[in-house]
Amino acid sequence: MQSSVLTTVAATGFTVAFFHAAIPTHWLPFVLVARARNWSRGKTLAITALAGLGHVGLTSLLGLAIAWFGFQLEEKMEAFPWVAGGLLLVFSLYFVWRQLSGRGICHHHPPGGRHHADEHCGEEKEHSHWQEELKDSPLVSARAGEWAAISGLFVMLTLSPCEGFLGIYLSAVQFGWRGFFVLSVILAVATLAGMTLFTWLALLGFDRFRLKSFERYEAGLLAAVFGILGVLIILIEHGHEH
Q1: Which residue from 5, 48, 31 is spatially nearest to 232, judged by alpha carbons?
Q2: Left, alpha or beta for 88 (phi > 0: left; psi -120 to 50: alpha)?
Q3: CA–CA separation, 8 vs 72, rounded Å?
Q4: What is the C-alpha separation between 119 and 202, in angstroms, rounded?
Q5: Considering only CA atoms, which of 41, 46, 34, 36 is closest in space to residue 136?
Q6: Rounded to the nearest 5°, which phi and psi values hold at 204?
């Protein structure tokens, strides 16, 4: 039973991480900066992967804090699975609120660029706003060096962790450190695969490909995922007690 539940949690985590990475904010800036600076395809993919590692690293560190805190609670509370399931349901309601209020999931923006908040959170807009933001950004400025652009992209993505994956870490506390390491590997593989795949497709000319609908309803999808995981954990604990 434990193995099947961990497999379910892992599969859910992969789905969340991959589709989160598929959102244009995770690959479109790299494509636009690469075109402005005439980067080669290989160099662009390498920089995308580097930034993805920073994104994964910070998310994993936050996940480590959640896992450690969960382990401490689990030792002191026999009813921890009920608490974890309840917290996941609370997260679910939070993302339901974000979805219904039109706030969606807010993501990163280029350093030094012009930011229009109403164009990034829950609105179904065209991706051309990135070109507007990048106009005033050192990421594409000829006066800024290559490392300034690379570090800017790295910081932009690193400082915006995958918040949707943090609840997945919470759901795996019952599996101990094994669950944490399994999810961390899955987070890295799914995120890097999603970012490099969609960056590569855009570099090949498929930049008209849009995921606006998914981006628009990302909060609602996360609400469904957390709700299902929360109910699953509670049902499993209820079954153990009986």
Answers
A1: 5
A2: alpha
A3: 24
A4: 22
A5: 36
A6: -80, -10
Q: Which amino acid is at 4?
A: S
Q: Which domain holds residue 7?
A: 2-241
Measured between alpha carbons, how far is 196 from 204 in angstroms, rounded to an integer?
A: 12
Q: Residue 232 corresponds to which amino acid?
A: L
11, with CB counted inside 10 A (0-12, 13-18, 19+), is: exposed
Residue 155 token pair: 């910081």
Closest by Cα among 20, 25, 15 to 199: 25
In a 13 Å sphere around the CA of 66, the CA atoms on its Cβ side amount to 25
Domain count across the chain: 1
231's CB contacts (< 8 A; 6+ apart) are 85, 89
Contact 86, 230 (CB under 8 A): yes
Instruction: pLDDT tens for the chain, 242 residues: list them.
Output: 567 778 888 888 898 899 888 888 888 889 989 988 899 999 999 999 999 999 999 999 999 999 998 888 877 777 777 887 888 898 889 888 888 887 665 555 555 555 444 444 444 444 445 556 666 666 766 566 788 889 989 998 998 888 778 888 888 887 889 999 999 999 999 999 999 999 999 898 875 555 555 567 777 877 888 888 788 778 776 666 55
d(CA 213, CA 5): 30
Distance, in Å, from the CA atom of 124 to the CA atom of 229, rounded to the nearest integer, reads 28
pTM for the complete prediction?
A: 0.77
